[in-house]
Amino acid sequence: MSVETQKETLGFQTEVKQLLHLMIHSLYSNKEIFLRELISNASDAVDKLRFEALAKPELLEGGSDLKIRVSFDKDAKTVTLEDNGIGMSREETIAHLGTIAKSGTADFLKNLSGDQKKDSSLIGQFGVGFYSAFIVADKVEVFTRRAGLSAGEGVHWASKGEGDFEIATVEKAERGTRIVLHLKSGEEEFADGWRLRNVIKKYSDHIGLPIELPKEFHGEEKDKPAEPEWEVVNRASALWTRPRTEVTDEQYQEFYKHVSHDFDNPLSWSHNKVEGKLEYTSLLYVPGRAPFDLYQREAPRGLKLYVQRVFIMDQADEFLPLYLRFIKGVVDSNDLSLNVSREILQKDPVIDSMKSALTKRVLDMLEKLAKNEPEQYKTFWKNFGQVLKEGPAEDFANKEKIAGLLRFASTTEGEGEQVVSLGDYVSRLKEGQDKIYFLTGESYAQVKNSPHLEVFRKKGIEVLLLTDRIDEWLMSYLTEFDGKSFVDVARGDLDLGSLDSEEDKKAQEEVAKSKEGLVERLKTALGEQVAEVRVSHRLTDSPAILAIGEQDLGLQMRQILEASGQKVPDSKPIFEFNPNHPLIEKLDAEPDEDRFGDLSHILFDQAALAAGDSLKDPAAYVQRLNKLLVELSA
């Protein structure tokens, strides 16, 4: 062995210690997965070398035959995995093997539940696949050298998976990384060629470079060759380059786990080869669950980009819009130059054409999922629905298509479940109905019981109930669907059009005229608090509500602006009262103007609370209410 210099012992990052504790206690239900993770990392290292060698061919050091080798020693109880990829410097080794990947460290810990089965699914989302080696090994050694560094700048890393690791500088003639796993007692089954071959075929057949194992030797011991002979055990052709008919569902699922570092199967995928004006292949996946950084719009995202099968970029975000940032997969183009860079990507018209086509392909895939597998689509919507709602604002060309994929709660469906599509709603329109009615609010309980829905319940008209924080913003961009315009039932002067009979309209006009005196008294009492006072046509059971002006911001948008520290434009609500309610009748008959004012303010504050708003002067509301209670009990 080479002489070790600059040897030091360093402690793991706290998060890694916790992770290793989970690993060492057999966190994975399927131990053989460690090999998939290490091969996947080796494949990534080779991809990175290919890319860097485009600009610096000298990094190949005269060896362009790129591969991964897996070997074993039954007597020593070791499994060794070696690649001739990019390798690591001393600093990179400490950074990559001593800490969990930079993104998501805190989220990883926050989401550990203590339930080993649940926690196992978190690993892989944070670039922690290397630590899976400790599932089967009680000691792991890494020998690595970064391409371009001298042979004397090799690195030896070793750890028993406890609190610390050793690192030293060693001689390493070849670039790349060699990982030696010293198997735990009871895990000797992996020091076997047949076992390793089966695991590689099962999990890593899709890897697009050769994975070699030593050939099995069956002759006399004296005839055994001095140097092992190697044989390729995987197909060694990139999965996306194969015809769809030759790829099984299991192979597609394993490839997804390779590109996404997810441990669950995807919900759906689309494999497509485009020929003609543009030539490219895409393999796109819809994940089964959301990553922790889904709502961080600046987080790294995008597809793996290959050009003529050469890896170029890990997260090329130019090929899909931001609202589809959850999509994983690969795009391999023949129309981009090999020296492609971010600057070129952003300016190349070919990218725009590919982005448009890939966006439509994803939306088609989601449409198919919604139509053929509604239960799977429910899972998708639960995980990614709020992100998809960003679409109508970002992608005008596909607005109608995106709208068809949206799901909402409604007054006619199960408790709070967002299962109603706009297509469902339109198919159930009442005779004479030419509008899609909706109501936004803080929670399902609040909007379901909102007084704004009373007239709709009476007439049996379905209303969509929108409770996500993004919904009011979404509806400012989504103005119509299937030729039907959207109407916020809490905004402006409600006009039900032909859903109101001529008799209803005439009766409403007569009532409004008869209550002109009460309208004026309320205007005087409420003063600057309201923009307008009018008789309501929305109410059947409640005494009063607050409506929003046509051009004013709703409560959701006001709260979003306030939370982000932005100035909220001044606006005043419209106070509407139900002339047939006993409280309003008593109010109308109240001769004492001071008492009339107190009662008016109590009704106004109650209407604000029913709308989900907070009171500007809660103390005044309590004083007025207490005063009223004392009078009633006297």
Task: Write a short abstract of this structure.
By secondary structure, the chain is α+β, with helices and mostly antiparallel strands.
How does this model look, in words?
The protein is α+β, with helices and mostly antiparallel strands and 634 residues long. It has 4 domains: 5-235, Histidine kinase-like ATPase, C-terminal domain (Heat Shock Protein 90), CATH 3.30.565.10; 240-382, 2-Layer Sandwich (Ribosomal Protein S5, domain 2); 402-496, Rossmann fold (3-Layer(aba) Sandwich); 499-633, Four Helix Bundle (Hemerythrin (Met), subunit A) (Up-down Bundle). 37% of the residues lie in helices and 19% in strands. It contains 22 helices and 22 strands. The strands form 4 sheets. The protein has a 9-stranded mixed sheet with strand order 1-6-5-4-7-3-2-8-9, with helices on one face. The protein has a 5-stranded mixed sheet with strand order 10-11-14-12-13, with helices on both faces. The protein has a 5-stranded mixed sheet with strand order 15-17-16-19-18. Helix 2 crosses helix 6. The chain starts with a strand and ends with a helix. Residues 101-106 and 120-127 have low confidence and may be disordered.
